[in-house]
């Protein structure tokens, strides 16, 4: 028998690592609070957060790239 519960869209990529200064997950871009409360958010609130995730992840990616580049030694 099929479940009557609608599925909840989630951006989770199962890469659950939180950036130490931004507090955003490196996998999905959500904050710990957003992850914890995701199931309680309305569809509109989830959609609003999901529109922010690409820019968050891009910023995290840029920060990680800058941090991983070691200065050249003379």
Report the sheet with the most strands, covering strand number, pairing sense and barrel closure: none
What's the count of strands? 0
Shape: elongated
Rg, nearest Å:
16 Å
Strand content: under 5%
Number of helices: 2
Q: What level of helicity do the residues show?
A: 40-55%
Task: Give a short overview.
By secondary structure, the chain is mainly α. Helices cover 43% and strands 0% of the residues.
Labels describing this entry:
0% strand; elongated; mainly alpha; 74 residues
Folded structure, characterized:
The protein is an all-alpha fold and 74 residues long. 43% of the residues lie in helices and 0% in strands. It has a domain at 12-56. The chain starts with 31 loop residues before the first helix and ends in a 6-residue tail after the last helix.
Secondary-structure map:
Elements: H1 32-37, H2 43-68
